Amino acid sequence: MSLLIVGTVAFDAIETPYGKTDKIIGGAATYIGLSASNLLEKSHLVSVVGEDFPRETIDLLQSKGIDVEGLQIKKGEKTFFWSGKYHRDMNTRDTMETQLNVLETFDPIVPDSFKDAEFLMLGNLMPAVQQKVLSQMNRRPKLVVLDTMNFWMDHFLDDLMEALKSVDVLTINDEEARQLSGEYALVTAARKILNMGPKYLIIKKGEHGAMLFDRDRIFFAPAFPLADVIDPTGAGDTFAGGFISYLVNGGDLSFDGMKRALIHATAMASFCVEKFGIEKLLEITPAELEERKLALAELTRV
Amino acid sequence: MSLLIVGTVAFDAIETPYGKTDKIIGGAATYIGLSASNLLEKSHLVSVVGEDFPRETIDLLQSKGIDVEGLQIKKGEKTFFWSGKYHRDMNTRDTMETQLNVLETFDPIVPDSFKDAEFLMLGNLMPAVQQKVLSQMNRRPKLVVLDTMNFWMDHFLDDLMEALKSVDVLTINDEEARQLSGEYALVTAARKILNMGPKYLIIKKGEHGAMLFDRDRIFFAPAFPLADVIDPTGAGDTFAGGFISYLVNGGDLSFDGMKRALIHATAMASFCVEKFGIEKLLEITPAELEERKLALAELTRV
């Protein structure tokens, strides 16, 4: 089983009520890859950075089993940079600065050795780029998961709608589900979105948990109740990486398999927000992960 | 096992995106009592109305096993009236008008025959009035549940803090838990609130479910995902009535017993919001209730 991950590799500068960082390593694909590395020995990355991106970080990704053959390093250019500030409720944030840099002209090239990947994680990125990656595969992967956000709905809705036709699982948050469907009630929103292409829809509700829908069923996974959320950046990507890596690892792509993947994804996301940036993702022990998943199961056990 | 319910019996005028009502029957104790009547043959009410309150409604309550000996009917006075308008998200509402009327001078009198009640539900009301009811009991009930709201925290915090010392279970919503504790994270908020007196805390999160806390444990009950929420009025009271009636009925006051009560409460609240006012509470069939509770259990079953 092989996993191909597409998404940004970036610099972030983050401010939360708990503190402020300088430029630290971020990006959807970074979080997805590091999240997946907690279950998988190997995954493959397609992304782009500038010449300013630290070699040590690329080495770090490789040491976590993330194959970087598909990571383009653009000479004389700068890495994508995002800076944001979270408010007290940690559910809302202001983007302070976005420098697209290398992303502006990103033309993803899937190395030949990745083109047979059975699992494809299309991390949050321009829908046309996500689509372009899918079109380069030798055959359609067994499972394609697409993560996106309101920005693409605002500015590239047609491309996004086109991409949605080809995916198995879509992950978005509750506000995005409302925006995409034009429906307030999530049950109704899900029904409409499932008519746009995806066979499964995951609605991420942050501290309120996550919901998995197919045409007939709904599953709900509560979030782990944390006393302190230090930095929510990357939680959704970590969630997506946890979700798909669990499916790669277990191979059960049924609704029941996806339920278990959702619990794993929830646990991973709960770790992510406990420290700034990717820090916590590098140090989760298997025992800690197991303990958290048990605690999550216990939370709803009657 | 006997249940005493204290709270308002009122007129409401409600506007939601689904429509608008004239004066209809409302009030915390009304919803609590009707919710409880779905499990209990008998309960006892302490409340007050004006001369304008319809005799048929009092008859209706009686027909549902709600003993109205403790319902004061004030000659020449008017019933408490509240009018509110809900926004699209149904989680926020504006109070358009409040006429306290008979509530202004409400002096609760617990009939002798109710003074040995083993379960006491102190519905949302002035904390001093809630306290006054408790003090009239012949002995401390086996279980005292108190529901309250931000209004009392804003204006009668000392009285509320005093009342909290004597209760077993406090039910409030997430914003109120944050206000009462001064803590944003619900886990931390719960810890602080449990130090104020209650042995158990229930945090109601509307469409995001409900959480039960004691000092060591957390249980989470998701809300039933409804396609249409027609009118959220009384959902919290219906929840409280469902919760306590389940405990009266089952008698298991352990944490595990309360978990099951929370599921029942969640199911009852989900019915309440399906129609305007108390309408749906009058027509729930046992089969429908059973079906909804099964669906709720299924929602988190892995």
How would you sum up this structure, described in words?
2 copies of one chain form a homodimer. The first copy, chain A, is α/β, with parallel strands linked by helices. Chain A has a single domain, classed as 3-Layer(aba) Sandwich (UDP-N-acetylmuramoyl-L-alanine:D-glutamate ligase). A 9-stranded mixed sheet of chain A has the order 6-5-1-9-10-11-12-13-14, sandwiched between helices. In chain A, α1 runs parallel beside α8. The longest helix of chain A has 18 residues. The first copy, chain A, is globular, with a radius of gyration of 18 Å. In chain A, 50% of the residues are buried.
Shape of chain A: globular
Q: Let me know the average pLDDT of chain A.
A: 96
The CATH C-level name of chain A is Alpha Beta
CATH architectural arrangement of chain A = 3-Layer(aba) Sandwich
* Sheet/helix structural class of chain A: alpha/beta
Report the total helices of chain A.
10
**Percent of residues in β-strands of chain A:** 15-25%
Oligomer: homodimer
